[in-house]
Amino acid sequence: MAGSTLGTIFKITTWGESHGEGIGVVIDGCPAGLSLCAEDIQTFLDRRKPGQSKYTTARRESDAVSILSGIFEGKTTGTPISLVIFNQDQRSKDYGEIASYYRPGHADYTFDAKYGFRDYRGGGRSSGRETIGRVAAGAIAVKLLNQLGITLTSYTKSIGPIDCDEQNFDAAQITKNPLYMPDAKAAEEAQRYLDQCMAASDSSGGIIECIIKGMPVGIGDPVFEKLDANLAKAIFSIGAVKGFEIGDGFDAARATGKQNNDAFLLTPDGSVKKATNHAGGILGGISDGSDMILRAAVKPTPSIAAPQRTVNRAGEEINIQIKGRHDPVIVPRAVVVVESMAAITIADALLRNMSAQMADVKAFYSHET
Amino acid sequence: MAGSTLGTIFKITTWGESHGEGIGVVIDGCPAGLSLCAEDIQTFLDRRKPGQSKYTTARRESDAVSILSGIFEGKTTGTPISLVIFNQDQRSKDYGEIASYYRPGHADYTFDAKYGFRDYRGGGRSSGRETIGRVAAGAIAVKLLNQLGITLTSYTKSIGPIDCDEQNFDAAQITKNPLYMPDAKAAEEAQRYLDQCMAASDSSGGIIECIIKGMPVGIGDPVFEKLDANLAKAIFSIGAVKGFEIGDGFDAARATGKQNNDAFLLTPDGSVKKATNHAGGILGGISDGSDMILRAAVKPTPSIAAPQRTVNRAGEEINIQIKGRHDPVIVPRAVVVVESMAAITIADALLRNMSAQMADVKAFYSHET
Amino acid sequence: MAGSTLGTIFKITTWGESHGEGIGVVIDGCPAGLSLCAEDIQTFLDRRKPGQSKYTTARRESDAVSILSGIFEGKTTGTPISLVIFNQDQRSKDYGEIASYYRPGHADYTFDAKYGFRDYRGGGRSSGRETIGRVAAGAIAVKLLNQLGITLTSYTKSIGPIDCDEQNFDAAQITKNPLYMPDAKAAEEAQRYLDQCMAASDSSGGIIECIIKGMPVGIGDPVFEKLDANLAKAIFSIGAVKGFEIGDGFDAARATGKQNNDAFLLTPDGSVKKATNHAGGILGGISDGSDMILRAAVKPTPSIAAPQRTVNRAGEEINIQIKGRHDPVIVPRAVVVVESMAAITIADALLRNMSAQMADVKAFYSHET
Amino acid sequence: MAGSTLGTIFKITTWGESHGEGIGVVIDGCPAGLSLCAEDIQTFLDRRKPGQSKYTTARRESDAVSILSGIFEGKTTGTPISLVIFNQDQRSKDYGEIASYYRPGHADYTFDAKYGFRDYRGGGRSSGRETIGRVAAGAIAVKLLNQLGITLTSYTKSIGPIDCDEQNFDAAQITKNPLYMPDAKAAEEAQRYLDQCMAASDSSGGIIECIIKGMPVGIGDPVFEKLDANLAKAIFSIGAVKGFEIGDGFDAARATGKQNNDAFLLTPDGSVKKATNHAGGILGGISDGSDMILRAAVKPTPSIAAPQRTVNRAGEEINIQIKGRHDPVIVPRAVVVVESMAAITIADALLRNMSAQMADVKAFYSHET
Fold it and tell me: Given Cys at both, which of A259, A286, A287, C30 links B110, Cβ 3.0 to 4.6 Å?
């Protein structure tokens, strides 16, 4: 089944394997007239690029984007925007061995079972490099949202057992440490923790949080196209994500109604606000104008240097030791992926919402607004 | 935007409001030749019917299903199956008051903002009664899955702070207590806790768990149509869900790779198995043949009898007290909704998977295999 | 596969068989705030109702619509509108015989081959009664379009060899003859022709034309979602349609560029117009503001009283004679079906078009327009 | 709105402008294990390449395809196949003039109206070069169909008033004349006719026919996803198509039931056949196992050398004369485009059909077939 297309109006299609010619994405349905250049996209790609610190793989990739269509005179034309990032460091010789066995925690076995065989070089389509297309598209979605006064802030909330302390939250810190944590102290601790993991040939999971400010009220549709449902799908479609929550999330399951309900009140300018935001900005699947807050639980990098038990394609139980250097934690590089998927989902929902009321449709087509 | 249709091949469309004529669902794309009668569906609907215990609303609804199309001589024909459940207890007079203000934790405000007005009777389309259509469709999906050897077991994992103890797990208990908990002791404690909540005019959240056994390997598609991503969307589209996880879920974010990786091994018959199941039955978005385990965090019932602060449509801050009797906890009645959404999602994924390999396509069309 | 849902934003799902409980449609994504009552829909259904003249089947059906959801206080709420028309004259005893063989020109054989068996009563889902759901939805789409200043005029262009003469076109005539022809003289001739067909136990085909006035410029999307491509699909999805064309259609294939090109000119008020309209109101798949003109070729009713050769399910060649009275021509009753499908398609395209330009998106979300 | 993606399981997404970096297509959902190399695709592209005869534009383009993903060890992997054809002859200087005005018969005006501006170089996205992506995808679809015993034969049926004579039909002729006509005599006449058109600075339309042999019975879904409805959409989405028909098409509208009905009979091996094939291989939207026959009416090339009246963006009526050399007829190069769109549509329908019967689903998942 075709699984590489997402969205209804703002629609993206990604392609490419870790060690193929390249990775790309087609963004269709972006409104015409959005100013866009390669640098807008490159800035995002650089946030997930390998080789940024000792906590990321040393694979050498400039991950430079080329725009092949959809932009004319510096603006989107309304037609598909095709972006490609050619692979450079395709040393597939490293991967000859993994062709024969199933790495624990990876999709080697399930791909083989589904398709009969697989492009085993670097994980092929199930590689983390698949997210490059998402991030390239996310850069465009974020630019679109910014034009509407919507901003996203994303960061590492925790690494293994090390949590950021909300009291210490400082957005300026996020880009000042290699882990993208908004709490300098926690970032230091987390680095020490990761150093231990690496020393033990082990890896760590973590939690990513994304806050979206400036959301209009009314975005998202009832029933199956709830905004949080689509965010859940988009975030869960990122390789290593094992949990997703909005607002108080799993804590809400422990709470009572008195604790969890957000009272409505009026702002001095007469608009409706919530006194608290346990809901995380969504009520009944529709944005309520408060900050939207979402979190993704990311599992530890499955590629660890320690010996592991597994099975090979010949049907034998074997011991393996995965070679090469791998990220001891996926989380920091996945921060921009979560932000991208959130932005793509919200952009699509916004564009779908313009015809919710007959009065808006009439106003648009009378051209008298 | 149209938000009431879900699925690609096994596709459902729901309709209906709490106090309208009725609630219904159209299931399109169910394979022809599945034996099906009204009782198959009624059994599921009865699991979410109100009035089953003191922990559920006293609204009187028989929730009797009528099959209007798609069945002939006791079997599905491959054409749309239309099911309707007519509303009986539509005393909308109770709801005149809530027309004027926004109930905290409900979608009154966001519906008004999105559509300009709303069917305020009993929450209209955002009512919990909307899930009737899902459960009716879920009954069919479950019957289809059962034919393929796949079974689902769903239950209440926790109510507020009261968790089931895995050591005490007893599937036979699930239907023996009004909370659908598989741990008799926890069920008793939870009932005491709910009694306290009710006495305090308060309500409780909880967690639902669903285990799917007998899954074939290879179901789910890479990238955006991962099986867990579609499960996340389906489960998150249920009204009060605020969190979703697969396998170890958020705990995986605290773990290390050594702890979280599931080694592969061989069973005596030579098939591949995992030694553990932290992944919850899905690797790279594709089922790995282990049990699939998912959890949904459900928020406390927002309708509580205690006084609350809110805002009315006239733009005034007011105190309200919601009348009528409401479920002090949504969780027990939502168990079958979670199971239904999981089954619908898996049924669709299974039907989509049949053309993954060229060899299968050729075998099907040669009819000579 | 699910084939009973159409549309992206204005989305319809139909269900029901000729001799089942009833026929219905769910319309999802209709903007909130459109005034709507049962009579708006009934008027359309009455245009396709049987028993209107000697040229239509005598089956007794009032085809009375019930609105089950989506309307509140006389207006659409933005949630799914569920419409049902219960069958009355379900004398399925007449159909016992056709269970065993394949009627020429019908879908009996292909349904059996596809699904393994079929609801043979009155053609089941492949019956002409399936179009009731389309027409009910079409009534809503037309009402929506009318609010935007768009009107549709549909009629019988030809019956067998009898064509309307464009010189005699009189829209007022359309409803004055049982064939819905805009040329009184042609209507008389066509009736004589049909009398001959009936006397010969034969039937006739014909052509339906639909003109859409008041279209805004810019509706339809490039490449696969061209407005004419979606109209082609929508019209071709009507049972007996074998051909479709826009503007000059097949005549354009005989023409030269000089003949076929429509020069642009300016109207006194400075807007752009075309001097001619060979294109039928669409250029590059996008509406150009001229009248849209489309035609559908409808095959002769396959149910004829004359003896025919066919094959039965037991694998024998047999002679059959189809009993009961059948329309000698489908065309007059299909006129409103063509109009409905055109309106549904255009409504969806209009709602999709509102986000084509970034400036419009910004204006909508700044709420300063 | 996103309009560049087509299909449900076999899904294609095209991108690119006439004078941008290149043209491409992503094919997602192609089953794994299909042998595929660049030459398979190049053969198809060469059939629509410019510069093949004096009847096609002299633009120099090798139209060489690169495969960027989805193939491993010579076979499809089940993941997206990304194909790109880089533009070479991008002399956009020729197009400065047409930036300012609207060419009759082109989409310049409608693109401007829809998007606010347009990539005017060579028609941008509305250029005939957009079909390159379709043909590249079509090559893969045809290869897939061939594996299932399905073959497509496509040719020019008529050029302007010159029709092929069915009596002279000789498939071997198709590739022996520059017009792809299966009738050598008609091809000569048509060339004389085109010479006259060119001498008169004029152009010609024509009709393309496609015959599909070897179709299994049962492909296509009832109601909106009828196989002919999807073929209609796919073919009508090709730029210059103004009419589409199946089987007898518009002639069926002139016929009677006795003439048009195809009797069923038995072949010596006991299978069901039709005595005639007025239906063109489809009954009730589902393939009946006979040859499928479809035709597309193609309008004359709108770019003619003769002077024309039009309007410019400054709102003035002007006389224009389009420079450069243009195809005097689109039809011969569009033959492979029609075939490609037909193949893409059929491939998708075939893959969707595999779950129509519960017995097939059970057989697939029991792996005992």
Answer: A286
